[in-house]
Amino acid sequence: MALANRVQLTYWGAAAALSGVVLWVLGDMLLPFLIGIAIAYFLDPAADMLERWGLSRSQAVLAITLASLVILLPVVLFITTTLIGQLSALNNFSFSEEKIIEIEAQLKSILPAAIGENLDLRALFQKISAFISERATQLLDSFAKQMFGALVSSAASLINLAVLFLVVPVVAVYMLLDWDRMIAHLKGLLPRDHEDTICMLASEIDRTLAAFIRGMGSVSLILGSYYALGLWAIGLDFGLAIGAFAGLVTFIPYLGAIIGGGLALGFGVFEFWGDWSKLWYVAGIFISGQIIEGNFLTPKLVGTSIGLHPVWLLFALSVFGGLFGFVGLLIALPVAASVGVLVRFFTGEYQKSLLYKGKSDLS
């Protein structure tokens, strides 16, 4: 005999509350495991593809691990150290005195009436420099606190940090190795009366997550690399950092190009003053990036709809990031996708019910 709906809701509500308490209490201790699970989820399609090519699961995981160590790890380390170096340089950012004098002289020659004695460009640029340095410092401090939390707050922070980077790949490898068996085991534990519905919802959640994490993640990676390498190639200071940031916020339509392009043009106006062709190159990089994204990357890698509105995603990131720190940021996307799928499901059920249709549909 099936349990009453009220009892079932009590059980599911208790499970959700218990999950929240565990997340709140354990917090930072879950960080390496959540990152490892996320990596395994991201790489599972690659392992499945290698299995279809004839490799065993163990051989597929070994091949992916070796490829990551040989190819991805050096690239990630190079990009990470370069980005950290550029972001750190922003802490002490200042405009060069020679460039300020050059800009001031040219502006006064072009617009002598508008650029008078009352406008002190040197003081203006000093204020801009101080603002950039202050915001860069706040960004780095906030990122370090959010990402590592308690890991960097104790005397054993280096040990904790080393453990983080050791545990993550181990968890990722084992989860990737046992992913299919784990999913099958969890499916076997589902309530028999609701197995089909739960599997359907889980499949829809997986589709949404896959479209966003693998699809939008790939789009962000490609565009971020394109922006960063393009800005670096024309010699823009902090080009890698600006390009990476623009790629990171690509999931919000047009925001990455607007913010990244604005920052790049802002730095470019000062750095390339007088060489206006390079400013056109900067604008061309972001305009072409939007064309490539809209016509090729997003249709091919993501599809027409991922079922996850950017505003809803931003809300989830803000709430879970504020409640649980960096761990909350990691779980915000799966939770947002799950809630979105559940809302659409229950909306559909409501529209099929008598409460929505009314008695007139009975005739």
Key terms for this structure?
363 residues, mainly alpha, 12 helices, 80% helix, 0% strand, globular
Write a concise synopsis of the structure shown.
This protein has 363 residues and is mainly α. The protein is built from twelve helices and no strands.
Distance between the termini: 32 Å
The structure class reads mainly alpha
Per DSSP E runs of 2 or more residues, the count of β-strands stands at 0
| Parts with pLDDT < 50 across at least 5 consecutive residues | 150-156
**Strand proportion:** under 5%
> What's the multimeric state?
single chain
Fraction of residues in H or I helices: over 70%
Q: Can you summarize the main beta sheet?
A: none
Number of helices: 12
Shape: globular
Look at the structure and give the mean pLDDT: 76
Please give the radius of gyration in angstroms.
26 Å
Order of helices and strands: HHHHHHHHHHHH
Topology:
Elements: H1 5-26, H2 31-52, H3 57-89, H4 97-110, H5 121-148, H6 157-188, H7 195-233, H8 239-248, H9 255-271, H10 276-302, H11 310-351, H12 354-357
Helix pairs in contact: 2-3, 2-6, 2-11, 5-11, 7-8, 7-10, 7-11, 8-9, 9-10
